[in-house]
Amino acid sequence: MAVVIIMAAGTLIGYFLIPVRATERFGKFNSQFQLILVCILIFMMGVKLGSREDFLQELTQLGWKSLVLAAFPIVLSVALVYPLTKRFLGRHVRKEEE
């Protein structure tokens, strides 16, 4: 719950307190900063999982059910995003080429 509150607070602060001109000027820096922080977050999650003594045993016990539960949303996301990208972004690419 604390994570949701922190994210909501950051969103509200960004929306109400930071002017649009600042986001245009620092947008690239902000994007790179977010990428670095996400990489650190993923790395730290891996460290935490890897430090568990029974992690590999727990992972094998989860079995096919967890694989399907992970793969199903990924496959559906790609199946939806790919045609939608072709449809909506394809128009912009064609207009820029003309």
Automatic annotation (TrEMBL):
Name the Pfam families on file. Answer: Lys_export
Residue spans crossing the bilayer = 32-50, 62-82
Q: Which UniProt keywords apply?
A: Membrane, Transmembrane, Transmembrane helix
- Out of the domains of life, which is the source? Bacteria
Q: What InterPro entries does the record point to?
A: LysO
- Name a GO molecular-function annotation: L-lysine efflux transmembrane transporter activity
Query: What is this protein's name?
Result: LysO family transporter
Lineage of the native species?
Answer: Bacteria, Bacillati, Bacillota, Clostridia, Eubacteriales
